[in-house]
Amino acid sequence: MLAGGQGTGALGQDFHRFAKVTVFLLVAALCGLFFTQARAQNYSFSNVVVEGNDRIEPATIVKFAGIARGEAITEAGLNDAVQRIVASGLFASVDVVPSGNTLIIRVVENPTINVISFEGNRRLKDEDLSTVIQSQSRRVYSPAQAEADAAAITQAYVDAGRLAARVEPRIIERDGNRVDLVFEIREGRVTEVERLSFTGNRSFSDRRLRQVLETKQAGFLRQIIQRDTFIADRIEFDKQLLTDFYRSRGFIDFQVLSVSREFSRERDAFFLTFAVREGLSYKFGNVTAVSEYEGVDATEYRNVIRIRPGATYSPLAIDTTIARMENVALRQGVDFMNVVPRITRNERNQTLDIVFALTKGPRVFVERIDIEGNATTLDRVIRRQFRTVEGDPFNPREIRQAAERIRALDFFSTADVQARQGTAPDQVIVDVNVEEQPTGSLTFGASYSVSSGVGFNIGLSESNFLGRGQFVSVNLSAGTDNQNSSITFIEPAFLDRDLRFRLTAYYNTTDNDNAFYSTRRIGFSPSIDFPLSEFGRLELRYKIAQDELFRVSASSSALLQAEAMRGAEVSSAIGYTYSYDTRIGGLDPNSAFLFNFGQDFAGLGGDIETVTTTALARYQTRAFREELTLRAEIEGGAVFARSGDTRLLDRFTGNGKIRGFEPNGLGPRDLTVPNQDAVGGNFFAVARLEAEFPLGLPEEYGITGGLFADVGSVWGLDNTLGGTIDDDLHLRSVVGVSIFWDTALGPLRFNFSKALEKQSYDKEQSFDFTVSTRF
């Protein structure tokens, strides 16, 4: 019985548990059903009432809500309506209250912005920051937009190299539901690049690679040099510069593996390290062309190949050869030709065999060229950068080159050229989107030279005059003993062709400028130049001028006094100059050659009848892993009088031709008079050699050294006053040391020289300080 009683008790307990669970489940089901019905409850409103609005019309708020009268809507639908009203950005709070058949929408409007101000900004001006933000006065204040504007201002400071900048938007409440929006700015310090280094580079030193990058290290000129500021976006550009540098020197497998950025302990500077993989440098092997285009003979295309086997591989050489072959196809009337370079790599001897395959591409035409964003620049200025017009066969390479020409104008801060599908499968539309930038400048400056002393100048120039792509400049300069003024106008595409028209007018005077006489020159010269070949151009010019030698000292040479008695004389001359310059488009990045030859024939009316001939040949190359730059120049000139004698104003003085001598410090000289005047010569010739090399200083200082040697002379006169003037050919030779300094003010040059061979009457100048000109 005991056992049976215990079994009955256990059964009872199980029954009670079962009953409790059953009751619990029933209650849960009823509650779930209740809440489900509650959530699924539908509302329908015959009337919508808006409360709390002041400026915004009720109908606008109802439209934001998206609730139609009589439409069935759930609780979830009401919540969505609230979110839509809030998303308009016009309200600080929104509440939706169902009341029978009426829906009440209670809102609190955001205030309007009274004024917007910036506090704490010194590096970026208010007008610059105003263009960054979207918030505007007399518009509704939006906290979200204010935060977005603060982020945009912060980014503007980041772009300017101030990564520590912080911006907080604040509001000051005013009456009438208005607020003043204030952006409190803490600019922070400029984040500089403290060190630029490289790993994996074996062929070129860190110093050489730093010269390639746009980013520079910070040095003692950090207050002047702005490129030492860290800008993240510039790193990608620097990576491309490095890649282009190596690829143009035959390193076809070059890669920038990574760029590590390490913050300094003071968090005011970065240490940048470029990890690179150079690979091997390749040279050209066999280069030829084959035709896979029916009816096209490859012989003429092979004739335009200028790539020499054994030359260092360069993508530019490939691209230039393709352009030449496409020009041949254009002359032959062959359309839709694709020139495909097929490269075979020879690992053993590190050469690349190139086969230019002439293939027939798809028949695709340019439907139109759309240009947008040019508020000032005329469409035709941009359009003439294209060698392609509407209806021509589409050439992707030509479109890319046109984009580069547009950017090279320097009229636009951005220039994007893209091709897209046209209205038919065989049509392409070329979109050109540009953004204008200022193209005018007003400059004030000072200059100094050992011979002329201190000078001042002012210049006004516009490189896109009236949006026509024309250049106009006015320059005035004045020194201790000279005054110069000039006006220049250049039309780069005269008659919409590759003809550059130039017009120059000048008025120059000297007053005993290292001499015992004064000069006055006034002239006017139109010219036009055009291409004759890939690297050659020809300039044709006319010049009319009035020159005068006056105020000649009574103690000066009788030759000069006689020339002064001639008074102001008019010269009317035509001339030409042929130039051959491989600096633009040359295939070798380490070498450049320039040759100029010109003549001027005076005698088309006027008082002067002379023939003046000048020539210049200049060559530059880099050696010793491009650490050493070598330059060589040969220059000469001759002037002949077709009637009478030449004038001092027509002859050569050697000024600026041979270093180490004062202006008018060499050449034929009248030693029989107290002033011992240099009277110039009808001929001059000079050879100049120069080497530029690093001095071991940090590259960011921009200071390099140089050695130079000049040898030459000025000689020859029509009238030697019975032999009293020595006009024989006496060679002068000079050696010297140079210091080059690239500064924000321009490239400066300091020369220290010593004449090894000279005449006793020559006047030396052992030190000279000038603005440097580079080849």
TrEMBL record:
PANTHER family: OUTER MEMBRANE PROTEIN ASSEMBLY FACTOR BAMA (PTHR12815:SF23), SORTING AND ASSEMBLY MACHINERY SAMM50 PROTEIN FAMILY MEMBER (PTHR12815). HAMAP family: OM_assembly_BamA. Part of the Bam complex. The keyword Transmembrane applies. GO terms for cellular component: cell outer membrane. Pfam families: Omp85, POTRA. InterPro entries: Bac_surfAg_D15 (IPR000184), BamA/TamA_POTRA (IPR010827), D15-like (IPR039910), OM_assembly_BamA (IPR023707), POTRA (IPR034746). Keywords: Cell outer membrane, Membrane, Repeat, Signal, Transmembrane, Transmembrane beta strand. Part of the outer membrane protein assembly complex, which is involved in assembly and insertion of beta-barrel proteins into the outer membrane. This is Outer membrane protein assembly factor BamA. Its main location: membrane. It is found in: Cell outer membrane; Membrane. Residues 43-110, 111-188, 364-437 form the POTRA domain. GO terms for biological process: Gram-negative-bacterium-type cell outer membrane assembly; protein insertion into membrane. Belongs to the BamA family. It comes from Albidovulum aquaemixtae.
